[in-house]
Amino acid sequence: MRDNKLQILQHSLGLDQYGEGMRNRNHFVTGPGGQDFKDCNALVGMGLMKDHGITGISGGDNVFTVTPAGIDYVALNSPVRPPAPKLTRSQLRYQEFFHNDGYDSFADFIGVETKCEWEPGKGYRFTEWRKRRTGPWKPTKKEAKVAYKELLKAERDERRLAA
Length: 163
Description:
Blueprint: H1 3-13, E1 28-30, H2 35-45, E2 49-54, E3 62-66, H3 68-77, H4 89-98, H5 106-110, E4 114-119, E5 123-128, E6 133-134, H6 141-162
Antiparallel strand pairs: 1-3, 2-3, 4-5, 5-6
Helix pairs in contact: 1-3
């Protein structure tokens, strides 16, 4: 069977390309003359769909429904969904933030309130408001960010050694 016929069966049932979903419908509407109509008639011939003919609500097109044999066919012939990519701890935390309302930013979500300061003659530095942690002054914003991350890493390493 061509892929298009399997796709018609899946679509008729409200399923995705892997045959998964709510299965919240059972109909396919198509008019004569197109490839979908030919495929639906082939599915009728195979006993996987039933043609209910032209109905008033379908606007002059044929309405097809999937038979119990067609439902079984979809279950047996839909490809297996590939495994989801393995996410790092940081990626999982960002996904949690993405699906969680009520935060202005990712930094707010993880509880870090940092800002970048600039002063003439001194340069840039990053400051975290809650813990009153301040990075060293650096000539560029990029260097200030690197220095601040090194400060955070050093503190994290100290906590690990103390534990």
